[in-house]
Structures are given as C-alpha cells and as structure tokens.
Amino acid sequence: MATAASTSSADSDTECSVCHELFKNPKLLPCAHVLCRHCLLSWLASNPEALCPLCRGAIADPKEKSKTKGWEEVVDALPDDVAMTALVESTRVLSQDHVCGGCKTAAVSICLNCNDMMCKSCSDLHTNFSATRHHKVEDLSSMTAEELAASQPDHCSVHTCKPCELFCPTHGAAICHLCASAKHRACPDLTELAEAADKSREELSQMVTSLLTEEQQLEEAVAELERHLEATEKVVQEAVAEIDRTCDKLENSVKECRRRLKKMTLDAKAKVKDTVLAVKVTLLDHRGRLTSHRRVADRTTRGTNNRGMCDVTRALRDRVKDILVTCGQRRADLKSVSMVTLTIDAAVVARIEKELSALGQVKVKPVSIGTRQQQDWRFHTNHGKNIVLSNDGLTAERVKDYYNGIVVADQPMVPDVLYEVQLDNVDKQFIVHLPCGVVLTDPDHLRLPGTAYYGWGSEAVVISHAVFNRGHKENNNLNKATHGLPEGTRVGVMVTTKAELHLWVNGSDRGVIATTVPTPCFAFFDLRDTYNKASVLPPRHVD
Predict the structure, then answer these.
(1) Is the link from the previous residue into 538 a cis peptide, with omega within 30 of 0?
(2) How far is CA 463 from CA 126, 265, 479, 498, 522, in A?
(3) Which range among 43-47, 327-331, 364-368 has the greatest average pLDDT?
(4) Beta strand pairing call for 109-111 and 117-118
(5) Helix (H) or strand (E) holding 173
(6) What's the pLDDT at 360?
(7) For residues 30 and 289, what is the distance between their CA atoms, to the nearest angstrom?
(8) According to the 3-state scheme, what is the secondary structure of 16-46?
C-alpha cells in the first residue's frame, strides 16, 4: 500500500476546493487559484458574477459570456496549470498499491521513465534490458510526488513517441526535431529546450523572490496596522478616561460636554478603525494574490518538466509584473491611515460653563504607517522665537541668545516608537544639560516658555538637571545622561505601550524617566545654552 508520507506533501495542493477530488484539467485563474475545468464551468453557470469561490477575485468579465456561446470559451482561454496536472498524475501513481507490475510482489522502486513500480528482481532486469537500461530507477520509499512530476520526460505533444529537445520562442512551444523540420523551419531563434528551461527556471526563481519579498512587506504592513489599532485603542481609552476626570470636576454642568466629547472621540476611533480595516483587507487580498502566484511559481520550479516550466512562465510573466506594480500602489494606501488625538484645554476648566464648548478637541491626524525608514515627523512650526527651521522642518537652529530654543514634534508619539534628534552644533564653552521630554498639549495650542530647564508646569514631563513630572520634581539619576552631550550625539524619547517614558542616548535605552505618562503627547527638545542646532532622525520602532 502507498504510504502517507509519499503523498502528504501534495494532498492539500492537488485537491480541487469545489469537488474535493484530485484535479481534472486544472485551470489557472487570474487570482492564481486553481479549479477543475468542469468545476469552473459549473461554478460560473450558477454564479454569473464570475468571482473566484475562494477569494472572490474576478475570474472574467461577465460580459464575456455574451460574446460566446457560453462560458466554455472563457474557461478554455485560461491557461492550463501543467505543473498541477503533472503533480496530480504523480500523486495518483504514488497513491496506488506499491505492487510490482511484473510479478505482483511488493514494489521497492519506480522507473521515472515508465512510471512502473517494480520489485528488486524486476528492477534489476529493467536496468539490464537494452531498451530500458538508460531509464532512471529510484527508491520508491523516498520518492515524492513533486520529484516524480519533475522527472517526467519531455515528450512532443504532436509526435508523442519523440522527445522534446528544442524550444520555439515564436510559438512558445517545446518541439521535437521532426516538428522543427516540418512546421518550424521558418521560425528564427530555435533554442535547446534545456537552455530555455534554465532561463525559465531563473525567471521563475526571480518571480518567487520578488513575490516573497512583497509578501513579507505586506505581512509587516498588516502587523503595523494591527499595532496601530492597538495604539489607537489605547489612545482612545486614555482620552475617554481624561474626559471623565475633567468632567467629574465640573459635576452636572459638564455632563453634556462629556457626552459630546465621548461621541467625538469614539466617532473618530470608528473612522480610524474603518480606514485601517479597509486598508488591511486590501493588503490581505493582495497578499493572497502574491502568495498564490508565488506558490504556483515555486511549485512549477520544483515540480514540472521543462515544457511545463516554459508554459507556466509565459502564463505568469505579465501577471506578476502587474501584481508587483499593484502591490506598490496598495502600500501607498498606508499613508491614508490616521491617529486619534484629544486635546483638553486646562484654562477652559476654570471658566466652567462659559467656555464649555471649547473644553476639548478631538482630531484625526494623519500618521505614517509601515514607513519606518522615512523621516515622517518634523519640528512643529510653533517653536521658540530664536529658532529657525530649515530642510522642510527637519533641522532647527537657535540663531541668537541662549534661550527660547524649544522645538516640538509636529505629531503625537506612537507607542514603542523612538523619536530622536542629532545634535549638529554644540558650543564647548559651557557644559550643561539638554532638557527634553514630552508635552501633553497639542503644539497648535501650546504656550512655550523661554526654557524647560526648570520644568514646564503641568503641561510636560521634563528631564534636565532633574526630572519634572507635570510640575512635580522627582529624584532620578537619568539626568546625568543629558549632561555635557558632544556634537553628533543622538538623543531621543519613547513612550511605551505601558505608558512609560524612556530616555535614549546614542541608540541606548538609558531607562525610565516617568511612568503613567498620559497620551497623546509630543516629543520636545530645548536647544539652550551650548546646544545650537539639531536635526530630526527617522522614527524607529523598538520591540
């Protein structure tokens, strides 16, 4: 009996998802899924929208049916999956009882030329007969369906007893020498089939590499979207909690305001979530197409003969080019993803009902997802009066005095993403601390002090000569890490998903500045005293 190991690797690939039997006349759909010809015809007859039953991708334009007598011409125009056909036949052969065809005893080997199973005695005779001594006989116990399919001889489709030894690029066909003399005499550039197969194999390998690379990038993009959804959920939860804390102080007079702000926040969350999920669905759909085509190309490379290799290469070439272009376009959709921010104006609370309509603001701001290598944050245009921005907001320079040099990020921090600057110009005349940290107010509405060296009240978490956590001075030895920084130093801050604010210097995590840091928050750096100039570095996700 055939062993499970001999066919298990191909079982799932060789069964039609409609009839759940081995493929018969398998057809390769535009989405790279495979169906039996008769199953495809039956499916189209009962589903005139002509969508793939597995991924709902378009099989054909339904209008095509009106141009023919039925779906037959549409289906027959689809390429045959010759690699699958060979794999199915090999699976069928290996699934049979392992019985010698000559003496009906247990078979131990198989002839790759004849597909006949043989016992040891018959195998020895087979390799000694003059007619079959050049046949390749392999151990049956270690033979896989893919190996058997790939080892099949290339027979001419016209002269079936003749081997295919040539390839005609003009007709895209593998031919024998008789065909070359009779029907392809005028065709230029006839090449050896083995040479053409080598080129096809190389092209298919490149396809697999390109598709796999795109597939991995899409998987990473989907993972980024998942992390973004988690961050959005956390931001919204904290925003709702902040709304509750503020409204509780104002008792009944702010109940209506609380309801309004919650609704704005949750609506913004829903908008972000809908956008993210829509982009995610698109990416998963294209990842499916990438995976399907990669599998076809990979399977063909490993499990078909030379002629099949050429046929599948021709069938996939333009598709793969189109898919790779489309995937690039789909990744551009990531730029449409946004993040929810909530702003609570503390000054409004003191004025109570008079200013309730301006108590909070919920915004959906665009953020860059899946582009970690891009400089996708800049210095906000609200900066210290002695600061001049250049390089499209990526460089800040204090042009006079020693104060009024605060710069703030133009977008809220994403959890577990490091926001860094590089100190480009440091005056060695003084050795001082570089104040940095996060502000809790949107830079659009932020009032900047001359320096953050002595803290920044309740609006910020600052590390300079000490740590000032929303106005409270705390003991923390990390202040030593910001003292006397030389030119070229990289300084950054990062808020984790646990709401911990970390200080980073030259790519090293120096520790936790503060805990329970509210969000949204914005990174800031105070270019005071000796620190004259700094440049934005690309944000970096830290696992």
Answers:
(1) no
(2) 84, 31, 6, 19, 14
(3) 43-47
(4) antiparallel
(5) strand 173-175
(6) 64
(7) 9
(8) CCCCCCECCCEEECCCCCEEEHHHHHHHHHH
Residue partners of 539: CB distance under 8 A and separation at least 6: 372, 376, 377, 414, 417, 418, 419, 420
The first and second tokens of residue 407, run together, are 């710069």
Please give the full DSSP string across 444-463, using - where no structure is assigned: GGPPPPS-STT--GGGEEEE
The answer to whether 467 and 500 have CB atoms below 8 angstroms apart is no
d(CA 317, CA 200): 10
The torsion defined by the Cα of 134, 135, 141 and 145, in degrees rounded to 10, comes to 140
Distance CA 26, CA 73 (A): 15
Question: What confidence score (pLDDT) does residue 436 get?
Answer: 95
CB contact set of 86 (below 8 Å; sequence gap of 6+): 149, 150, 152, 303, 304, 305, 308
Q: CA angle 116-121-127, nearest 5°?
A: 60
The Cα–Cα gap between 417 and 407 comes to: 19
Distance CA 526, CA 492 (A): 12
pLDDT of amino acid 365? 62
Whether pTM > 0.90 for this model: the answer is: no
Residue ranges of the alpha helices (H) in 81-119?
Answer: 82-95
Q: Tell me the domains of the chain and their CATH numbers.
A: 4-150 (3.30.40.10), 194-366 (no CATH), 387-541 (2.60.120.920)
Q: Look up residue 285 and give its two tokens.
A: 């759909």
Q: Coil, helix or strand for 322?
A: helix
Residue 356 pLDDT class (50, 70, 90 cuts): low
Question: Please, which pLDDT band fits residue 426 given cuts at 50, 70 and 90?
Answer: very high
Give the burial class of 372: count Cβ atoms within 10 A of its Cβ; 0-12 exposed, 13-18 middle, 19 or more buried. middle
Using only C-alpha atoms, the chain has a radius of gyration, in whole angstroms, of: 34
